[in-house]
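To whoever picks this up:

The parser on our side crashed when reading a file containing two proteins. I've narrowed it down to the boundary between the first structure block and the second sequence. Both blocks are reproduced below exactly, byte for byte. First block:
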Amino acid sequence: MQYQISGHQIDVGAALSTHVEVELSGVVEKYSQRPTDAQVVFSRSGHEYVCECTVHLSTGLTAQAKAHATEIYAAFDACSEK
């Protein structure tokens, strides 16, 4: 699976990128055997971090989720739960 992890006016470090890849692969493989790619974008909205995730599946379906939290890791974790 290909990952595109980026930040909108935020630096996304190696530790966060690794966390996203490990957690997202576990979540997606639970529901789909052949995901093709995932895009994760982090941004800020006031004092909160925003995580938007889009996963394209080989069946043609697209799964999207968006979450807000005061910490960047918590924003991703809430997004991956959705």
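<<boundary where parser fails>>
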Amino acid sequence: MKVIKIFSQLLLVLILSIIGYSIVQEDNPIEVVKGNLLYKPIPFILEKTDDTICKMLIHSYYGSSQAITKNGDTYFFNDIGCMMIWLEEQPYKESIRLWVYTKDTERWLNARLAHYTTRDKTVVGYGFGASERELKDSISFKEMRVRMLKEEHLLNPKVRKRLLKNRY
């Protein structure tokens, strides 16, 4: 058991070294990190990592998310909405590990277990803020995913008007 723990720590150090080395070697932002066979969220460098979908630099962990494929490729997103768009294009959706940074506990959580509010200020503007604890009017991952795919989010003007009508 101790050997596994040491191996895991060494693997994480190796991944972080690869990230650091690639940043030093090029000015191009990181979009994907290969070899994350622990399938855990990995620390990334703010303002040096690109959102896989919208290509915006990620400036904050809040609202960001990561997707790790079964071959260990880690993709980064600055808004859970971007990750949902990306996920729909993937052939093996259920085998992909999804992580989201929560606003209430400020840590990475399995995105499928998180609770989502629908009116948060998010980087891209979809409005889905993740929390570890269930909040009043929060929805499940499954419901958030359905709403994203139906474009029932704050970027849709009709939905925005309805959602924000009773906010104040």
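After patching the parser it read the second block fine. The two ends are 53 Å apart (CA to CA). The chain is about 30% helix and 15% strand.
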